[in-house]
Design a protein that fits this description.
Number of helices: 10
Number of domains: 2
CATH topology of the largest domain: Alpha-lytic protease prodomain-like
CATH superfamily of the largest domain: Cation efflux protein transmembrane domain
Helix content: 55-70%
Structural class: alpha/beta
Largest sheet: 3 strands, mixed
Distance between the termini: 19 Å
Number of strands: 6
Order of helices and strands: HHHHHHHEEHEHEEHE
Strand content: 5-15%
CATH architecture of the largest domain: Up-down Bundle
CATH class of the largest domain: Mainly Alpha
Shape: elongated
């Protein structure tokens, strides 16, 4: 379903503001505890909270910019700005992690003795509970409005709770044994932050570069199109993403060769409305393949050609087949895996089919395995 709604932006902003206030509050208390107790691990945990707050600020800015209406320069809108803001957040997280790692290593080389109090431990324990509540809330809101940034922030908050708990355990361990693990816990925290930043950056780059469409969405759209009585199959479905909940698509429908242009027009308009209503995806282009309806010879040719094509492991599907037995020509599309070069595959398939039907003109069009499910 399409989760785009008028209040999506307000939900993201409200949730981000709550995250900012909470993280600033926690950062202040942790920084005070860290300075009083001379704990590098607690101070680094406070820095992590500040980076989370800054991330929420950037999320708000990105959401506001992404919500700008389309214009002449950017007719598809500004939705992809959310991905750019995510990249900036990832950079901030990486920077925080690297800086924390440097400071932790310095503390290992020249250690300082920590001095915890009961109040310090209570504050850290309270911070753990607050982070768990905040993480659960933010992640739930992110899923409600399909905001990857909020979902990531919620997951990050839950992870921060684990990190804060490790700081608390190291403090308790120090009070019981007199052995300080502060700097080493700081190294672990830094490594985790760096790992999180790299993973966030990879996710964002995948969104910017363009990733494979969700298999369930692809399957649902094809099923909706195949419900139309005259549609024998839906192929070459390509989804174009221009930001969260801003998806466009093109597709080919296999239709009988007896349909009039007027009938095709009515069918495609009906299909476009149905797909948008059910999925929120806008079909911007609907192409057609024709299939033989009254030629038994063409049906036999199709079966023979399909058997030859699919005998190759790298040929995943054949569609759009049409044979003109009078003009001695046949054409079809072949969906190829990424294990073979399209030119090589076309040469092989053309030669194979030519051996079966030497008098026919063969036209083979390669398709990539983009949305095949």
């Amino acid at each position: 379903m399409n989760s785009e709604s008028p209040n999506r932006e307000s939900v993201i902003i409200k949730t981000s503001v709550i995250g900012i206030l909470t993280n600033v509050f926690l950062a202040g208390f942790k920084a005070a505890v860290g300075l009083i107790s001379n704990s590098i691990a607690v101070i680094l945990d406070a820095v992590n909270n500040l980076s989370d707050a800054l991330s929420s600020v950037i999320t708000i800015i990105g959401t506001k910019l992404a919500g700008k209406a389309p214009d002449k320069k950017h007719p598809m809108g500004y939705g992809r700005i959310e991905y750019l803001s995510s990249a900036i957040v990832s950079g901030i997280v990486l920077y925080a992690g690297i800086t924390s790692l440097v400071e932790s290593v310095k503390k290992i080389i020249t250690p300082d003795k920590a001095d915890y109090s009961v109040v310090s431990l209570v504050i850290i324990g309270t911070a753990v509970a607050v982070k768990i509540i905040l993480g659960t809330y933010v992640k739930r809101k992110g899923k409600q409005v399909n905001s990857g940034a909020l979902v990531a922030s919620g997951s990050d908050a839950m992870f921060d709770a684990v990190l804060s708990a490790s700081v608390l355990l190291s403090a308790v361990f120090f009070l019981l044994t007199g052995i300080s693990l502060e700097a080493y816990v700081g190294v672990i925290i830094s490594a985790v932050i760096i790992k999180s930043g790299i993973e966030m950056m990879n996710e964002t780059l995948n969104d910017i570069l363009g990733r494979r469409a969700d298999p369930e969405t692809v399957k649902h759209i094809k099923e909706l199109l195949a419900e139309e009585p005259d549609v024998r199959g839906a192929y070459d479905l390509v989804l174009y993403n221009y930001g969260p909940d801003k998806n466009y698509a093109s597709v080919h429908l296999e239709l009988p060769d007896t349909m009039t242009v007027e009938a095709v027009d009515r069918l495609t308009r009906r299909a476009e409305q149905k797909v948008y209503r059910e999925t929120g995806v806008i079909l911007t282009g609907v192409g057609v393949y024709s299939y033989n309806t009254s030629n038994d010879e063409a049906a036999k040719i199709r079966n023979a050609v399909q058997e030859v094509v699919l005998s190759h492991d790298w040929a995943l599907q054949m569609h759009g087949f049409y044979a003109d037995t009078n003009k001695k020509s046949l054409r079809f599309d072949a969906v190829l895996s990424f294990d073979i070069e399209p030119k090589e595959a076309m040469k092989i398939l053309t030669e194979d089919v030519k051996q079966l039907y030497p008098d026919y003109q063969i036209t083979v069009v390669p398709d990539a395995d983009i949305s095949l499910s």
